[in-house]
Design brief:
Pfam families: HTH_20 (PF12840)
Number of strands: 7
Low-confidence stretches: none
Structural class: alpha+beta
Strand order of the largest sheet: 1-3-2
Mean pLDDT: 88
Protein name: Helix-turn-helix domain-containing protein
Number of domains: 2
Distance between the termini: 50 Å
Organism: Streptomyces drozdowiczii
Number of helices: 9
Order of helices and strands: HHEHHEEHHHEEHHEE
Helix content: 40-55%
Strand content: 5-15%
Radius of gyration: 20 Å
Largest sheet: 3 strands, antiparallel
Length: about 210
């Protein structure tokens, strides 16, 4: 099976509205999700959620882990719960086929070798400013960052440039930070503050904005 066929098969699984809702719920969660939580999150029974969650696992869109949520071990601790999280793999397809990822890698390599980091960051910041986002949270959500508030900071659950950031971390993360800075409204600030998962940038809003 070609990579395009595999991607099409994976994305076709999301044609079912229940599976699509479950995928979005799990993908947006900050941590692993139980079947019960997923079922409650999309308003279906636990049995229905379990069936569709496992279909998403089979398609490579979700991953599973097993853990005792009580923290107890040994006899009488109960069976581990099956937990779900978004899979690390990416699925993309274009009709007709295109190879934008190849071009982006080549361009990133040239920019890095030429030492044009500052120029790239300036262009990214200008592009963010040109967008003129009155609501930074909504703008980041539209761009695929999956923002959420955590202890007064706006964290970004997804890195839209994940594959490139792994190959060219300094270049791409610097560009990403500059682009976000340009996008933010007055009173907002962004800084590098990486977590194990998600985007490496954390954002702070004006006083009183965000979770208490």
């Amino acid at each position: 099976m070609s990579s395009d066929d595999a991607a099409l098969d994976a994305l076709a699984v999301l044609g079912d509205p229940v599976r699509r809702g479950l995928y979005r719920y799990v993908a947006a969660a900050q941590g692993d999700v139980t079947r019960d939580a997923a079922a409650d999150g999309v308003g279906v029974t636990r049995a229905v959620a379990a069936f569709h969650l496992d279909k998403l696992v089979d398609a490579g869109l979700l991953e599973t882990a097993f853990r005792r949520l009580s923290g107890r071990t040994g006899p009488g601790a109960g069976r581990p719960s099956k937990l779900y999280r978004r899979a690390d793999g990416e699925h993309a397809v274009s009709v007709p086929p295109r190879s934008y990822d190849t071009v982006s890698r080549l361009l990133a390599e040239v920019v890095e070798r030429a030492g044009l980091d500052a120029e790239l960051q300036a262009a990214a910041r200008a592009a963010g400013q040109a967008a003129g986002a009155a609501d930074p949270v909504a703008a980041l959500r539209e761009r695929g960052y999956e923002p959420y508030w955590d202890c007064g900071k706006l964290r970004l659950n997804n890195c839209p440039f994940h594959a490139l950031a792994e190959q060219f971390p300094a270049l791409v993360c610097g560009m990403n930070l500059a682009g976000i800075e340009g996008l933010l409204a007055e009173g907002w600030s962004a800084a590098m503050d990486p977590l194990p998962e998600g985007c490496c940038v954390a954002i702070e809003g004006p006083e009183g904005v965000g979770e208490v």
